[in-house]
Amino acid sequence: MPYADIYWDPYPLYARARAAEGLTFIPELDSWLVSRHADAREVLRRPEDFSSANAMLADIPPSPEVLAELARGIGGGGTVVTADGDAHRRYRRPLNRGLSSGRVAALIPFIEERAQALVDSFAGDGRVELMEGYARRLPGEVIGRLFGLDEADVAFAVHGGYQAEALLFHHLGDQERLRAARDMVDLQHMLDRYARARRERPREDLCSEIVMGLAPGADELTPEQRGEVVSNLLNLLIAGHLTTAALIGTSVLHLLSDREQWELLCASPELIPAAVEEAARYDTAVQAFRRITTRPVVLAGTALPAGAQLLVAFGSANRDEARYDRPERFDITRSPARHLAFGHGVHGCPGSHLAREQVRVTLETLTTRLPGLRLSPDLPVTMVPTLMHRSPRALELTW
Questions:
Q1: Which residues contact 278 (CB under 8 A, 6 or more apart)?
Q2: Which pLDDT score, from 0 to 100, does residue 245 have?
C-alpha cells in the first residue's frame, strides 16, 4: 500500500498486518505497526517498557521558517499525552478534577441546549453541511465553556486548535504550514493570557484547575510555568474538541450509510448508548498513537531493541477478528464489548465521558428532530487524510 493510502484508508493495511506473523514494519513511518487488540493492550498497560515520549511526533518535520515562527510562541512544556510515570500523574491530576463526573453532569444541560439551538439554525433549510454546521461547533462551545473562555474567543480557539493539528499531522504547502504556525502561536498567547488571569482570579473552570495543579501558589507564573500550563491547555483543547467533532461526524456518517441502522435507531432510542460505542469502535477518531521502547522487549514474537518506534493502531485493534464477531460490520445491536477508541491503562482518555455525552445528545437530537436525514446523493463523502482525528472532510445531508 502506498504511503498516502495509509492516511486515506488505513483499514486494508491493518487487515494485512493482523493476518501477518509478528509485527509489521512500515518503512515510511519508521515504525512497527501494532495491529492486534491483545498486542495493543499489552503496550498500553506497560508504560515502563513502552514510553509515550514520542506520542505526538509530527508526521512532517517543521521547516526552518516554521521553527522560527514557533519560537515566538509560549510552550515547550511536557503534556499528559507525552509524559510517563510521576510526570504523567502530575499532569493527569488536574484533568481528573476538571473532568470529574460531577462537572460533566453539570455541562449536560448546556450541551442539550446548544444541540437544539444548532439544529434550529439549519432545520428549516432541508440541507446542511454537518461538519461545519454542527459537528465542529458543538464541541467547540462545550470546551469553551469548560475552559471558561469568553464567548468571543471560542471561534478563534477552535480555529487555532485545528491549525495546530494540521501543522503536526497534515500534508500542507509551505505557506499553509507557515500560516498554521502563526495561528498556533497566536492561540498560545491567548491561552497564556487566560492562564495569567486565572492566577490572579481563579474560577470554577478547567483553566484554573490546570494553573493551580501545575503551578501551585500565588506568585506570578514563571516563564517555565507559563510554558507548561500553555502546552497542557493547548493539548487539552485539541483533544477535547477535535476528537469529539470527528466522532460526531463518523457516527452520523455510518448510521446514514446503512439506512436500516438509522431507522432502527429512530424507532429504538434506547439503542443510542450502544450506537455511540459502536461508532467509536468501528471508525476510531484517534486511529493511532506512537510509543517508543525503553529497553529490549519481545512483542507478538518480534524482538525489538531499545528505542524502537511503535505505532499502536487503535483503529486496527477495534476491528480485530480475534476480539469481535464480524468486526467490519457496523452494527448498533452488537453486544457491548470493550474497545480501545479512548485508549487504555494510565493513558486512557480522561474526557471520554464528556465525548460520549456529546455524541449521545447529538444522536438523540437528530433522530428526534430530523428522522428523515439522508446523505446527499450527489456529494460523495471523503475522509480527512490523517491518522489523527479521522473524520469526514464534509458531510452534506438532506431531509
A1: 330, 331, 332, 334
A2: 97
